[in-house]
Amino acid sequence: MPAPDNLQITLAAADLKKINDALDALDAALAPVLITLTGKETQRLPKASDASLPFIRQALDLAEQQPTFAPGYVDIAGLRQDLTAWEQLQSIGRRLQPLASNLSSTSIKLSSEAYVVALAFYNSVQQAARQGISGAEDARTVLKTRFEQSTARKADRLK
Questions:
Q1: Cα–Cα distance measured from residue 114 to residue 146, given in angstroms and rounded to the nearest whole number
Q2: Do the domain assignments include residue 3?
Q3: Nearest Cα to 65, choosing from 49, 75, 53, 76?
Q4: Are 17 and 25 a contacting pair, CB within 8 Å?
């Protein structure tokens, strides 16, 4: 019997199809406007947060009211377009953030539950192998590779 705090999740094939279709639609709708930046490109860019929004709006309003103060290289219409698109994408991001966070939390919980049960099984296999039960040593040999790889990685990091 599962522990009461264990998640009991089953996603039907039809539900997975709906989810993937919705994600495909979202991806298709956003693909034409989204870009990918490298870490270095991201680091080099000046950052604007929601706290910068009032300043940007005021600068835009003033630039539209008094365009003579704008340097020749400033595209006021482009600024309005960028600001509008940023606000739209921020709104989409705010809607997606709780979903992404809950998806991550659920995934972490499920993986933890699976790992704990797998460890319990592995411990049982080890006990059976120590007792010489037929087939247990083969199972232990297969399962122990996960920990040997982990130990090897730790040793490599310490070098």
A1: 15
A2: no
A3: 76
A4: no
Considering just the CA atoms, what is the radius of gyration of the chain in Å?
27
pTM for the predicted model, two decimal places: 0.75
- 26-78 pLDDT, tens digit per residue, is 999 999 999 999 999 999 999 999 999 999 999 999 999 999 999 999 999 99
Q: What is the per-residue pLDDT across 90-103, written as a single tens digit (0 to 9) for each?
A: 999 999 999 999 99
For the record, the structure tokens of 17 come out as 């199809």
How many domains is the chain partitioned into structurally? 1
Q: Is the residue at 8 inside a domain?
A: no
104: Cα separation from own chain's centroid: 7
Residue type at position 39: G
Distance from CA of residue 27 to its chain's centroid?
15
Question: Cα(113)–Cα(7) distance, rounded to whole angstroms?
Answer: 8
Q: Is residue 58 a part of any domain in this protein?
A: yes
Residues 6+ away with beta carbon under 8 Å from 141: none
